[in-house]
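wait is this the right file?? whatever heres the structure
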């Protein structure tokens, strides 16, 4: 027998192992779903769509799908990952049962989506209540508001799916508009609204922005939907800079920070401003940013057709190497602007606050790592429900981090990293003193972290 030259041990492999759980770390997601009341809320909200003799609860199936997506699934069939481990995940339905439920729910999609949103709002209120001072809405004021970020993204379709259409980037698929609550620099964020749209949907459609903002406000505990006030800050890019949307925000007293496109006339008016009127910009660490300046241009530009109290703040900076200037840029410097109705605060602080909207792109990347890369179903309403499942998966991830991994850097991990380091930890099912025990691998680096998270979650009071 020749000696192996491989860098890895030579193993004899068979398929006779028993009691082994390949995604044992996912129990943190299950406990989070329970302590926030999500499982109960979904069961109650979706009870109308359960047939009299049905073996499986629609709420449990939707929760199972959300968990499978959090673990990396990207289609209905990936629920099989949970079906392998009934001692941990309970009884999981077959693929045909899941498909039939999706067909039933899609036939009544508006009511189903409302029911799921109601369950999510209830669970979110409980999760934020458990989080206390770490909740996004803790001690919010007009100076320190809860932040809701809106942004759209493109989702490619590789087959003729219902309502898929050509996109502005010459692709084919969908153009959903999403909203996330920002958890700040010490956390991640969580989805609060999503609107599935055909690929040819306009980027700056005011009605869509209003609809998504309404949904986002409805998902925010202790926020009055009709008149939220300045304790809520809505941020988005230039797609939101329409008269109709800004007027709608203005009438509800919401704080806003919206990307603002400059016209040639505005750039011309800005050209006469002396350099001394510009202030140095600051970077993410709130240190002086070399080669960047900001100015409050409210008194320089003609804003008579825009809502009362709106300010426009402009940033100019040396472009990055290779960047292509636009016709509205001036003197070789890149010009960007945003509109806000925040009256107090240094212009540099407001400009930094607006640039932190870029964290929304991180949230969208996480969404695409959690089932949004491709909408797997053919029907448009079916994919609307799939998008709701993606939001549930992201909710579970965010709440688990907020409640379980509070004091650890895992609080800020994106799904890919959490999946690899935490949820994929292996375990073994054993029985001791009439109890079923899940023993996590003692050689896994983050097993102790998972146990600590489970201890924290177990100490939380049961939802009302």
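ok assuming it is, sequence goes like this
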């Amino acid at each position: 027998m020749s000696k192996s030259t491989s860098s890895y041990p030579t193993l004899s492999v068979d398929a006779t192992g028993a009691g082994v759980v390949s995604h044992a770390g996912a129990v943190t997601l299950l406990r989070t779903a329970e302590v926030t009341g999500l499982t109960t809320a979904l069961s109650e909200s979706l009870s109308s769509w359960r047939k009299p003799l049905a073996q499986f609860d629609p709420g449990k199936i939707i929760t199972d799908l959300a968990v499978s997506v959090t673990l990396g699934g990207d289609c209905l069939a990936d629920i099989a990952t949970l079906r392998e481990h009934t001692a941990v995940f309970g009884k999981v339905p077959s693929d045909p049962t899941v498909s039939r439920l999706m067909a039933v729910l899609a036939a009544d999609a508006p009511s189903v989506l409302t029911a799921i949103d109601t369950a999510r709002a209830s669970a979110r209120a409980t999760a934020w209540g458990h989080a206390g001072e770490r909740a996004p809405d803790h001690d919010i004021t007009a100076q320190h508001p809860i932040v809701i970020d809106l942004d759209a993204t493109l989702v490619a379709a590789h087959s003729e799916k219902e309502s898929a259409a050509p996109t502005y980037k010459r692709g084919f698929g969908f153009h959903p508009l999403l909203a996330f609550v920002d958890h700040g620099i010490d956390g991640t964020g969580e989805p609060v609204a999503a609107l599935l749209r055909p690929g040819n949907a306009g980027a700056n459609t005011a009605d869509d922005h209003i609809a998504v903002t309404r949904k986002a406000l409805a998902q925010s505990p202790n926020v009055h939907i009709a008149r939220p006030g300045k304790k809520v800050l809505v941020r988005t890019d230039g797609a939101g800079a329409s008269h109709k949307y800004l007027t709608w925000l203005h009438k509800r007293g919401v704080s806003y920070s919206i990307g603002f496109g400059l016209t040639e006339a505005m750039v011309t008016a800005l050209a006469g401003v002396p350099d001394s009127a510009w202030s140095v910009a600051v970077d993410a660490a709130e240190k002086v940013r070399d080669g960047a300046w900001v100015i409050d241009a409210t008194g320089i530009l003609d804003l008579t057709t825009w809502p009362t109290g709106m300010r426009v703040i402009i940033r100019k900076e040396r472009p990055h190497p290779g960047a292509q200037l636009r016709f509205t840029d001036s003197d070789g410097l890149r010009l960007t602007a945003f509109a806000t109705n925040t009256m107090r605060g240094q212009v540099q602080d407001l400009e930094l606050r607006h640039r932190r909207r870029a964290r929304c792109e991180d949230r969208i990347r996480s969404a695409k790592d959690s089932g949004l890369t491709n909408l797997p179903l053919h029907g448009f309403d079916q994919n609307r429900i799939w998008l709701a499942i993606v939001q549930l998966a992201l909710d579970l991830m965010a709440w688990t981090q907020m409640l379980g991994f509070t004091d650890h850097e895992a609080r800020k991990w994106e799904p890919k990293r959490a999946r690899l380091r935490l949820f994929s930890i292996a375990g073994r099912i054993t029985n001791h003193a009439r109890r079923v025990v899940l023993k996590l691998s003692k050689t896994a680096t983050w097993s102790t972290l998972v146990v600590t998270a489970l201890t924290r979650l177990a100490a939380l009071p049961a939802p009302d």
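The two ends are 67 Å apart (CA to CA). so i think its the right one actually
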